[in-house]
Each structure stands twice: as C-alpha cells, then as structure tokens.
Amino acid sequence: MRKVRSDIQLARDERKKEAEGNLISFINLVQPDRMLGSIHREVIPWITSTSGKTHKLLLLPRDHQKSAMAGLYAAWRLTQNPAIRILYISSTRNLAIKQLKFVKDILTSNTYRMYWPEMVNQEEVKREKWTEGEISVDHPRRKEEYIRDPSIFTAGLTSNIVGMHADLKILDDVVVQNNAYTDEGRQRVLDQYGYLSSIGGAHDEELVVGTRYFPTDLYASLLEREVDTYDEYGNVSSSEPLFEVKEYPVESVGDGTGEFLWPKQKSPKGKWFGFDAEILARKRASYDNRVNFRAQYYNDPQDIDNSPINRNLFQYYDPNYLSHQNYNWFYKRERLNIAAAVDFAYSTGKKSDSTSIVVVGVDGQRNFYILDIDRFKTDKISDYFAHIQHLFQKWGFRRIRCEVSVAQQVIVQDLKENYIRKHGLSLIVEEFRPTRWTGSKEERIMAILEPKYANKQIWHYPAGNTQTLEEELIFQNPSHDDVKDALASCVDFIHDKAPLDSFRMKQVNQPTFTYHNKFGGVA
Predict the structure, then answer these.
(1) Do the Cβ atoms of 395 and 414 come closer than 8 Å?
(2) Residue burial 59-95, b: 16+ Cβ < 10 Å; e: rest
(3) H-type helices in 396-440, by residue range?
(4) 3-class state of residue 336 by DSSP
(5) Whole-angstrom Cα distance, residue 461 to residue 320?
(6) pLDDT, tens digit (0-9, with 9 covering 90-100), for 497-511
(7) Are 107 and 137 in contact (CB under 8 A)?
(8) Structural domains of the chain in order of their starting residue, each with its CATH number
(9) pLDDT tens-digit readout, 100-130
(10) Per the CB 3.0–4.6 Å rule, which of 164, 226, 272, 289 could disulfide with 239?
C-alpha cells in the first residue's frame, strides 16, 4: 500500500513539475476542457519564453481567447513564483475584476489545491488578502521576501495606482471602442500607459494583448517604440524595438477564403470554437462600418480619412435612367460610348486575385458610369470567354482592353483565335503592356483614377460588386486590387472615346454654308 501511495505521489510530483515549467501543461491540468487551437499552441511558448524581450505585444483578432490566455498566464506565473507582484490592467476596472475572478477560480479549484495547497488558505477569512480587486496568496515565500504589494492588483485605465510596484504588467484589451475613436480617448490611453513605466521595477516585464481598432491607437504607438542600446563603454550605439511583436489576421487572404488562424473545432462536450467562412461572414454582416470590422478581425486599421480616394468622392447614378435606343446606350439624354477592360488572374489559388471585367460608359461631358463588374475565379479559357461573351451581348461594347504579361499573352491569343473569331463577335481586343515608365501598378492605377474621382467624374451603381471596388479604393492595403485595376484600365482606354454631348451635337447638326468669295451667294 505504501508503495502504491509512493507511486501516486511520484506521478503527482512529476505532473506538478511539468505544469510549473510549461504553460500548456498547466492549462491541461487546471482547465482540461479548455480548447486550444494551433495558434494558441504557437503563441504560448513565445509568451513564456525567457530568451526574448521582456516586453511583448500580442495582437489577435476578436474572439480568439486573448483574455483567457492572459488570465491563465497570470495564474501560471504566480504559481511559478508566489512572491511575484502582478499588475493586471483592462480597459475598465469591472473588466479587470472579472479577469481576477477567472484567476481566483483557478487558484481555489480542487485540482489546483491538490497540487499547490500552500498557495491559498482554504478558509477565506484567514487569507492575507482576498478582495474583488486584489489578492495576496498565502505562500510563506511572500513573508520570507518581505513582499508588501499584492500578488495581483487589478485596475482600469483610469484607476488610481499610486504607490504600486509590479514585476509583471499585463495589459488585457485596454483599447476598446469607447476609447479608440476619439482624439481624447486615445490620448487618455497613451497618458495612462506612460504613467505605468513609473511603477515597474528595474527588470519588470510587460505583456500586452489586444486587437487593433484605429490607425493611431495605443498599439500603433507600441509598435514604433524603441530603446537605446549601449556599447561596452556605455555609449549609445544604436536602438531597437522595445516590444517583441506577434500580430495575426483572422484568415490569410483577407476576404474570408483563406486559411483560418483558429479553424472551427468541436470540443469533447459538443461546443464549437474557432472560425470558418460562414462564421466570419456573420461577424462581417453585423458591422455597419467595414473599416472597423477589418481592424478588429484582420488587425489592419485603415486611415481612410487620409486616403487619396475616400467615400466622400463616391457618387451613384440611378440605373432607371439608362436606356437602349437604336443600338446605342443613353443615360438620360446623353449617349454613352461603352468599352470594357479585363484584369486576368491566371491562378485560382486561395491567395490569388480574381479575374475582373469592368464595363464603363462615358458621355460627352466625360462622366464615367460603371455599368457592370464581373468577378470570378477560373483557369479555363472557355470560362473567360463565356463571361466576356455574356457582357458583350448585354452591353454591346465593341472594344475590350486586356492587360498582358507573358502568361496572360497566351490567354489573350487563345481567346482571339479560338473563341472570339470563331463565334463571330464584332469585338476588338486591345492588348496593353505596362512599362516601367508608367510606374508601379498602384501608381498607375492612382494616376488614372485619383483625378477622376477628385473631379467627380466617376459614377457607381449601388449594387453588385461595387462594395468590393470601394473597399479596394479606400483601403491602403486591400486583400485584392483586381476590380480597381480593371476600372483604371477601362477608364484610361475609353477616355478619348467620349461622344459629343447633346449641346455640341446640336451645333454639329446645324447646316453649314460656303459662300462664293467673288460673286457672293451660296457656292
């Protein structure tokens, strides 16, 4: 019997030692039903590593267990070192108190008591400090090291923390909607963060976990902060980033079709966690502001106010005023000359662009009306032709521009010889080859579109793929740019093919007379 007890105790000691040395093992011990995805198993060793920087910034999308990881990390560090002083800060004191409740539940669980009974007295009245906002564990090491400050002290951003000293500061989602979208709110967060440096020890550590909300939020500031480094003589030699950073989007492509950071998974108890395209689509639909959605799920805040093309420049026409008469299209009374452009994507991989075909009509006053946007993925020539043929039959354009590289040249040649000619389409295909003199792709696109939008010459239709186009136009780093590329190509192509406007047509249609220069009268 004694040997059996000895074996049980030995196994328990081994498991305790493993949990104290490894956060994942600790989680598996104290919260065995906690679902960890591959992303959590990737970042946890990084968070706990002692070989990197003392300041770490982890930016994860919303709903990816950031706060749970932060709370578990606090409990684990306290278990490793009962004399540690942890300052746990959330955006509000109430949220910080909830996180402390999460940690307290771990420390008072039956499993935890079995392995670390000396940490917390079973009788709450005999505990050193156990309130909703701070705790001090009962481990004798605290008295041996004369620790005066709490084991964990919680605070909101505006809490009074005068006189506190901390070895480890954990900032858990301190940037939120209430403080991210105003200059005053962002400045308040920056000011409070600046004060935190005064309460840290000489060798304090800092873990910041959160989600991006705004281009100039606190996390943007932390990403730019640097610390001086010194040579052997005590002179400043260079500088390096203060924070070691891990930053992730919800999925790899940007439009819901990529590989998800935390793929949807089912727990043994039947509860679902993680993301797939359908879940992300529901999240996206709940946002009125897609810029905010992109910031919070892709960690990609966009400074759209300083974008060369912003939403204030978008204007919409009423499709009910389009009419088709005598083989011509009109918008109200103005005749439209119509052309199309295609941006081929000859790869169908998840990370590739789609093929986009944009149809544009221009009137005599050089208003450009986006009539149609077709967007699809394929690697079949017959599919390319089917989409072009459908738009040709619908709009009757006679010219289409195709941007060609080496690979795209093969597609265009095949289309012309084996499809357009054989099907008898009266369609001229113009091949366009950008050169280095026209600048980069983005420079070329903006050189064409920016002045047209600034002069209010481009008109959208309020449906279809217009939303995709507008996101590509206003975002600085869109996941794709195929639609705006095709639009720029089409506008550039059709710019000099505008018809006469109705006023000039009347002047042109007036009869003209030539007079005899000697005898007078009509010659």
Answers:
(1) no
(2) bbbebbbbbbbbbbbbbbbbbebbbbbbbbbbbbbeb
(3) 406-415
(4) strand
(5) 11
(6) 888 765 455 544 555
(7) yes
(8) 37-250 (3.40.50.300), 315-505 (3.30.420.240)
(9) 999 999 999 999 999 999 999 999 999 999 9
(10) 226
